[in-house]
Automatic annotation (TrEMBL):
This is DUF7716 domain-containing protein. InterPro entries: DUF7716. Residues 6-96 form the DUF7716 domain. It comes from the Bacteria. Pfam families: DUF7716.
């Protein structure tokens, strides 16, 4: 369990266990500077938990980032990783690289 910034875990997602879950404070706009809570997988924990909202597991974060980098054929920026992860969390689908933010995040 820990509380790093989202930009830190997107940069170093490989260092976490694939089945650990990422939660953010509910009701906020998620940014790279959002403080997240990392919890071990628990099938009985609800998606909304003690003021926190489930985002994804690290396995899914990795899938979203690796998928985007394969499409772009290059390493992605923190902003691109954030867009890919949030898109995956909201739509259960990989982001189309044409929908990546230019000069800021958009959904």
């Amino acid at each position: 369990m820990g509380t790093p910034l989202l930009k830190e875990i997107l940069q170093n997602w490989q260092k976490y266990e694939p089945d650990e879950d990422i939660y953010v404070p509910s009701g906020i706009d998620v940014t790279l500077d959002t403080i997240v809570t990392i919890l071990p997988f628990d099938r009985h924990r609800p998606r909304m938990f003690e003021g926190l909202e489930y985002v994804l597991s690290f396995e899914q974060v990795g899938d979203a980032i690796v998928g985007l980098e394969a499409q772009l054929r290059r390493e992605t920026s923190a902003e691109e990783r954030l867009a890919a992860v949030l898109h995956y969390a909201r739509h259960d689908a990989f982001i189309d690289p044409q929908h990546l933010p230019v000069g800021g995040l958009r959904e």
